[in-house]
């Protein structure tokens, strides 16, 4: 093979070409090794506890990992091809964010992104519970969750850009650009459905009601978040304000449903989850657990 | 046609830089990685080359292919030790796409991006606008086109359509 042959005229052919120069590929992802992800092995900033930092990376990484799985369930199920492509793209952005965050946690914990994604059990996940339940392939329910999640995550990542940790700061700076598109997508659909027909309005309102029990938890502070990241309590005013504007323009009502309960003061960030997380992990992890270390 | 004469083996522009610059993007093969603006640095130390690239999007699946293609091209050019590193900061921007890259995109029917947004993220509550003049049709040149979907076949493109020639096309989103 010579240099002029390398890319070929056809982009798709090069994807299936393999040579002796290729690395073996992971069956479950490509695995960001530290040599490649140059920033993942950055030193821990002074005054920051490495265990805290790893735990925080898992929180934000797990939020993205679990929601991207739920969004990916729409592939081959969306009402229109354009929405299917959009949801898959949003899922892909979140998966990318999750990989870097889990990669950073893996570096700090002596593990790696694949083991963290595929070999932890439910109570080791640190995501908020909003991302766990199935939306039952109800599009309005999907949009309602995405509206809450992306509005909250955008506010969070905007502040996280100032993080002393170079990986968190980099994920945040890149993530802000991506999640801005996600929020815009969710806002547009919320307006279109809420201020659409009587039926679409009713469905969109029902979607909000379905996800609202998990709203309060987004602003619940834990000590780790306050020490090494962004205190989520400080996001509430901004997120409330954005949602109020969107819901008013969409002629929707803000639900007045109490937040899902905690148990002994524990919620998603402490590993207390809904039973729905188990179903996500069963699907997400089954191949990796059946074929440990497989490559293709 | 290049007007540069002589070879490119200068200390500030090593030969390997040229090899890497000519590798094409796996998803948009009309662009080289240099056109796309994802190459952050190329350094040579003896026969060893270290290349640093940045992904366009966090989850861009093409990054693995880019890395493999860079390794292949450098190995084929005689470099024995090749390391390709990925950095996320500073975040890639469509402003880094070269003028040549913008021309090639338009020639391939993909509307190039306008200037990347700066400042706070805007909350847009306006109803969907009709055709807008910020993206010109890459097929017929009509000045105003309309968006079909924010998300296109690759992470970095949106879908639009031209009301004049009625053709759909991709638009590289400002990022």
TrEMBL record, chain A:
SUPFAM superfamilies: Ferritin-like
Domain of life the protein comes from: Bacteria
Entry-linked InterPro entries: Aromatic_CoA_ox/epox, Ferritin-like, Ferritin-like_SF, PaaA_PaaC, PaaC
Pfam families reported in the protein's UniProt record: PaaA_PaaC
The name this protein goes by in its record: Phenylacetate-CoA oxygenase subunit PaaC
Species name: Pseudonocardia ailaonensis
Gene name of the encoded protein: paaC
